[in-house]
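Notes from hallway chat w/ T.B., transcribed later so I don't forget. T.B. wanted the structure written out for a chain they're using in a teaching module, and asked if we could keep both sequence and structure tokens in one place. Agreed to drop them here.
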Amino acid sequence: MVYQAWQAAKKDEVNKSGNKVGADEIPARTQLFTENYMVCFLLHNSIGAWWAGKKFKENPNLAKNAKSEDELRRAVSLPGIDWEYLRFIRENEEKGAWRLATEHSTDGRKKLKRNHPRSLHGSGHFLIVALQIMVAMRIEEEGLSLEEACDAVLRDNIYGLEIDQRCSQIAAFALAFTAWKMTGFRELPKMNLACSGIGIHSKEEEWLALGKDVPRLRGGMNALPLFKDAPTLGSLIDPKRALA
């Protein structure tokens, strides 16, 4: 959605040109790609804002005394993570304390361990950048080694869901490959990635049995046969037929 919004003008330009869509036009035309700056902007102003908020609480003078956004970014930076897209604003143009441009909350969490970024992961672009950021955070917070931090983030912090099986496979490999580039080839923890688009092959009577004696639940199970051709018909299926 972010990509579509930012590329709206370019998409209109490509559509109106009438020219053949090539490699340079595909991103704007189909919204199949999320460019790196978009991923970084969103993660820097979400996970990064959480991190900066912690640092502001630890050092209240930081927001008062900093002369620029660049100074604030350097103050809350991590090894390899410079928060290039993390945004701060001042209470007025020349004076006053700085604050984060996005709403944030540490949510009472002093450490990252229980923070679980969840994503419709596509081919894994967001997951890869999130892995790199959170590995640096857990090394800083907990004194873990690179290998320990990488395993901890894969185990505790990253959760992804996708409706396309092939995208799920690509995302899992991309995440593993990034971890291997960071720590060397080795066995990794089980990843918390799942595909929800795999076909349901149980018998109809088995699904109806799940409804038991609960009328509403059984009614929902009765509607499932309506979606047996979903891979072919997609949005042509009218869910209201289940209520007929």
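Follow-up for T.B.: The chain has four domains: 2-33, 42-100, 118-195, 204-243. Might be a good example for the class.
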